[in-house]
UniProtKB/TrEMBL annotation:
Cross-referenced NCBIfam families: malonate_mdcB (TIGR03132), PRK01237.1 (NF002315)
Organism: Candidatus Pantoea deserta
Protein name as catalogued: 2-(5''-triphosphoribosyl)-3'-dephosphocoenzyme-A synthase
GO terms, molecular function: ATP binding; glycosyltransferase activity; triphosphoribosyl-dephospho-CoA synthase activity
Pfam entry (one): CitG
Keyword Transcription: no
Family, as annotated: Belongs to the CitG/MdcB family.
Keywords attached to this entry: ATP-binding, Glycosyltransferase, Nucleotide-binding, Transferase
Signal peptide (from-to): none
Function: Involved in the formation of 2-(5''-phosphoribosyl)-3'-dephosphocoenzyme-A, the prosthetic group of the acyl-carrier protein of the malonate decarboxylase.
């Protein structure tokens, strides 16, 4: 009996890791995304390609597996926080080895790593709010082994006085729960294709996120351009309408002209797709 439940746990752990990897690949391929790498090309990036993003996503599968195994049915405490911090940093090294030193998925390892961990802590069963609350509890615990780096994201957060990737997780992913998931469901219900509904969910995140990738590369002008442009797409009826598509093309051109890429928003879209798949039925109460 015990053996059977161990096997079932291992199957669910494998599913969580496979879903995380496929959400990263779905995010990368989704097109047309403003400023980002997609099936059309490299967006505002010189050192990133779709092939590199896909290789990076696959290199992270073992990290997601280890995170899920480590966290299976365990409570949030400092020992677990430190264990996942170590696994997350090892994941970053694996990503760097797979990409020849290019940062393809640092923010995504953080967001998806926490969500895979949280899903495993809940035994694979949780609704979207429970899942993100568990991830927030983990992200809020101290990790004594974390190196004190003054990263690009931290610099932008301090300079502009805005929250970054850490705070988004510590606040239980408000851009995913309050904006992206409800938009994904609304657009699907309105008859959008799956791809348009996902683009609309990305727009919903971009209307409000203080994306430190955009701030680092293009300052406040970049951030305001992103937020206003995304709002224009949704106000025009989203990506399923001709006007929405035109607004999306304008936003893409504006982001490229500013060398701006909303990498943080892309990470949160991958997180949204993960929750959508893991909490398949539970979050339909959202709208
Ligand atoms: C918290 C992280 C992302 C570092 O963030 P920081 O802002 O200091 O730095 P950095 O510029 O290197 O990366 C930030 C990345 O987050 C994403 N991002 C940017 N802005 C935002 C935002 N507002 N909200 C969410 N994500 C964002 C972008 O992809 C960006 O590239 C992470 O690398 C980290 O510290 N990991 C430690 C390992 C760990 O504890 N892992 C546990 C889970 S696996
Ligand atoms: N499709 C995508 N295209 C581009 N970036 C993405 C995509 N999906 C996720 N990202 C995120 O964007 C981040 C890359 O952004 P960026 O290139 O600004 O980082 P950087 O290498 O630290 O900085 P820079 O390129 O300005 O030197 C990654 O950490 C990743 O999490």
């Amino acid at each position: 009996m015990k053996l059977l439940s161990q096997t079932q746990a291992e199957v669910q752990i494998g599913q969580l890791a496979a879903i995380a990897r496929s959400c990263l690949i779905d995010e990368a391929r989704l097109s047309p995304k403003p400023g980002l790498v997609d099936s059309r090309g490299n967006g505002a990036h010189r050192d990133l390609t779709l092939a590199l993003m896909e290789r990076s996503a696959s290199s992270l599968h073992p990290t997601f597996l280890q995170l899920a195994r480590q966290c299976w049915r365990r409570p949030a405490d400092i020992a677990l926080r430190e264990a996942i911090g170590r696994l997350g940093r090892e994941g970053e090294q694996q990503m760097m080895a797979a990409t020849g030193g290019v940062n393809t998925h640092r923010g995504a390892i953080w967001a998806l790593g926490l969500l895979v961990s949280a899903a495993a802590m809940n035994g694979g069963r949780a609704d979207a709010e429970q899942l993100t609350r568990t991830a927030a509890a983990l992200a809020s615990l101290p990790d004594r082994a974390a190196p004190k780096l003054f990263s690009k994201g931290l610099k932008a957060s301090h300079r502009y006085g805005v929250p970054g990737a850490r705070e988004e997780a510590q606040q239980a992913f408000p851009h995913v729960i309050k904006l992206a998931l409800p938009q994904l469901l609304r657009s699907r219900a309105a008859g959008s294709s799956e791809s348009d509904a996902r683009l609309d969910a990305l727009m919903a995140i971009m209307t409000s996120l203080s994306d430190t990738c955009v701030l680092s590369r293009a300052g406040l002008v970049g951030l305001q351009t992103m937020q206003a442009g995304a709002r224009a797409v949704l106000l025009a009826g989203g990506c399923m309408t001709v006007e929405g598509r035109q607004a999306l093309a304008r936003l893409d051109a504006d982001m490229l002209a500013l060398n701006a890429s909303p990498g943080g928003a892309a990470d949160l879209l991958a997180a949204t797709l993960f929750i959508d798949r893991v909490c398949l039925t539970a979050h339909h109460a959202f709208f």
